[in-house]
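Work Package 4 report. The design task specified in the project plan requires that, given a folded chain encoded as structure tokens, an amino acid be chosen for each position. We show below one input record used in the internal validation round.
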């Protein structure tokens, strides 16, 4: 499969393709090697590594050095895939800090793009500066886990008219700032469809209905690699946690 580029993603809408773009979130070298051998379009190294791999309660504890470590590992495993890395909490709190950390993460990890949460004025300035200097950026609105405390928890965003208009404005401001793609997380499904129709760049949904241009899930949820129940919007294709536990128990019984 041909490795996709930002040019391909920007041309996606114009092509009026019936294809759904595919993205999976991955955190380790071996899983990335598997994804590298599939028809997957994109790999995201999410700051959700804090919850899923490092055992933190939220993503807030994840550092820029954590993201460099995990993004570099994934990129080494998925060399033929378009890989995107999250900018973690606090790493773009000001314009100067954001640009410096983005360059650091982009250079060290060798990923193809970075993802920033939110559409605040400072973020838009950073996105514009990065894209003008050769660093592709993905936007992320709706539920933004780095702001979960400020947002007041996990819930569907944009269900009322006022909130919906705000999210549409955010999506358009991100497009204007230069992002080539926008992730819509836990956005009300009809609103996500409207945003998808109004933007000239692809939308990637997670818990935002089926009418976005693409879908993203965490591979650990898709394969149920942990003991916890995956989010409602994810229907696991296997229960590898239970399978691995049974196989390890079988080995121990046979010692």
């Amino acid at each position: 499969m041909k490795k996709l580029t930002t040019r391909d993603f920007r041309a996606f809408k114009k092509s009026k393709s019936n294809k759904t773009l595919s993205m999976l979130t991955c955190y380790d070298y071996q899983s990335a090697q598997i994804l590298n051998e599939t028809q997957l379009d994109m790999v995201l190294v999410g700051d959700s590594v804090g919850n899923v791999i490092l055992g933190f309660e939220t993503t807030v504890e994840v550092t820029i050095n954590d993201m460099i470590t995990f993004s570099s590992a994934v990129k080494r495993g998925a060399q033929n895939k378009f890989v995107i890395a999250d900018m973690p909490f606090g790493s773009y709190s000001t314009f100067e800090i954001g640009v410096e950390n983005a360059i650091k993460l982009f250079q060290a990890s060798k990923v193809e793009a970075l993802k920033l949460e939110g559409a605040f004025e400072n973020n838009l300035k950073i996105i514009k500066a990065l894209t003008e200097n050769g660093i592709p950026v993905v936007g992320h609105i709706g539920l933004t886990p780095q702001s979960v405390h400020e947002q007041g928890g996990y819930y569907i965003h944009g269900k009322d008219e006022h909130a919906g208009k705000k999210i549409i404005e955010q999506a358009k401001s991100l497009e204007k700032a230069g992002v080539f793609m926008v992730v819509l997380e836990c956005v009300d499904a009809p609103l996500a469809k409207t945003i998808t129709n109004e933007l000239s760049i692809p939308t990637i949904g997670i818990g935002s209905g089926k009418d976005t241009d693409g879908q993203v899930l965490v591979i650990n949820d898709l394969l149920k690699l942990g003991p916890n129940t995956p989010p409602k919007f994810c229907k696991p294709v296997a229960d590898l946690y239970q399978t691995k536990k049974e196989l390890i128990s079988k080995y121990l019984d046979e010692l």
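The chain has eleven helices and eight strands. Validation will be extended to a larger panel in the next phase.
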